[in-house]
Design goal:
The chain is of the alpha/beta class. The chain has one domain (5-120): 3-Layer(aba) Sandwich (Rossmann fold), CATH 3.40.50. 42% of the residues lie in helices and 20% in strands. The chain has helices at residues 13-25, 36-45, 64-74, 91-94, 108-120; strands at 5-9, 29-33, 50-54, 80-85, 100-103. Strands 2-1-3-4-5 form a 5-stranded parallel sheet, sandwiched between helices. α2 (36-45) packs parallel to α3.
């Protein structure tokens, strides 16, 4: 898979760093954001191939699904979004903005597989 530009969004600094480290080891370019609002700001000025986002972020007004909807609908971005969550939610319930869900807790191999899988989608 070609190198991708990936944005990691999570309000928990250790989870954000863990996911970013996994993605960097895979050879991709990574940026991080600690809230949905920060992610939207970054997406206004940069293009990403993939976003991984937590569902429930306690530090902002916006959860991961609402952030995804704003980035896709309002900013018109075409990218793949991976929802990372400990909540039991299906892709159907999350909406058509979400490409894949990774359940917390996850193993590094599961995140690597998710990145590779959505990176291969057109």
């Amino acid at each position: 898979m070609d190198s991708k530009k990936i944005l990691v969004v999570d309000d928990d600094a250790s989870t954000r760093r863990l996911i970013a480290d996994i993605i960097e080891i895979m050879g991709h370019d990574v940026k991080v954001a600690s809230s949905g609002e920060e992610a939207i700001s970054l997406c206004m000025y940069e293009d990403f191939d993939i976003i991984t986002t937590d569902l429930n972020m306690g530090n902002g007004k916006m959860n991961g699904v609402a952030m995804a909807k704003t980035i896709v609908e309002d900013l018109g971005k075409r990218l793949k979004i991976i929802l990372v969550t400990g909540s039991g939610i299906s892709v159907e319930d999350a909406g058509h903005y979400i490409s894949l869900i990774v359940a917390k807790p996850f193993r590094a191999e599961e995140m690597q597989f998710a990145i590779s899988a959505v990176g291969a989608l057109r």
